Prior knowledge:
This protein has 314 residues and is an alpha/beta fold. Helices cover 38% and strands 16% of the residues. The chain is built from 11 helices and 10 strands. It has helices at residues 32-44, 56-61, 81-95, 108-113, 116-125, 175-180, 195-207, 221-224, 231-240, 266-271, 281-309, and strands spanning 48-53, 62-63, 66-67, 73-76, 101-107, 129-135, 186-191, 211-217, 247-250, 253-256. The strands form 2 sheets. The chain has an 8-stranded mixed beta sheet, with helices on both faces. It has a two-stranded antiparallel sheet with strand order 2-3. Helix 3 (81-95) runs parallel beside helix 5. It is globular and about 60 Å long.
Amino acid sequence: MSDKPGNENRITAKNLSEDEFFYGHKACAGCGGSLAVRMALKVMGKRTFLVEPAGCMSAVSFNFPQMSFANNAIISAFAGTGAVMSGIAAGARALGLKDYKVLGIAGDGGTADIGIQALSGLIDRNDDAVYICYDNEAYMNTGVQKSGLTPFGADTTTTPAGTEIHGNQRPKKNLFEIIAAHGVPYAATASIGYMEDFLNKVKRASEVKGTSFIHVIAPCPTGWGISTDETVEIAREVVDTGLWYLAEFYDGQIHLNKKPKTFKPVKDYIRKQGRFRGLSEDDLKEIIRQRDETWIRLNQRAERSDMSRYGHGE
């Protein structure tokens, strides 16, 4: 892995492949997850073996006889995405296949909760594979239940907002740093609101020798309480408010891709979403406190990375 990604052969809206590998699906209007899947497959191409566990994308994709994928795809057990990816990689090697890619795409619950053991094993084996978590911040397919990646204050069917308790009281798991702690060759965060950044991270992940991981924010209008035409805008705003960050991990270091000098108002972002309708001013202050704490830690880690890289470390 090079010290710093170059700009050569970057994907832009102008040179993106016209091929479609995910079409005719039955996702809800404005589904951020389906957009992430569609665009990732356009980058990865037709020689990609896809694994999807039980979840939104498998539920809307495998509707015989109107199958949504133009390439080979399989539904895995909810907990088994990483294990099935390793099995496919081993089978392809045994068959002597060339010029292929293995891709796993799972939701937040199937990645950060139910599937984290198999994902950890995949990274430990370091198989050539790309794992993408499309994060809509709840178990949306089964009725909007809280997952380990549901943010503080969000109203779900298992963390309902009431007069005393205003939605989910736990912070969102720090999945990116959990994966980075494995020493994975490449990991990144992304947002469908910054699509070219996401596309180029998918491209880079597909070129890495070993396992790579991308965590992409993909809003769900149904579960978030937003209009179907607001998905991309909200996915951009979550980055601009600092509640989500764009970063990469490679060569053992975290690198921030975007460092806002100022953040857009959190309150404006929050008030657009029905899932946060029960929040108080104190809740908003807590969300901002958690955000600031995250950025202090990230900046400290990024600064240490820079010092180490240029020989100024301890």
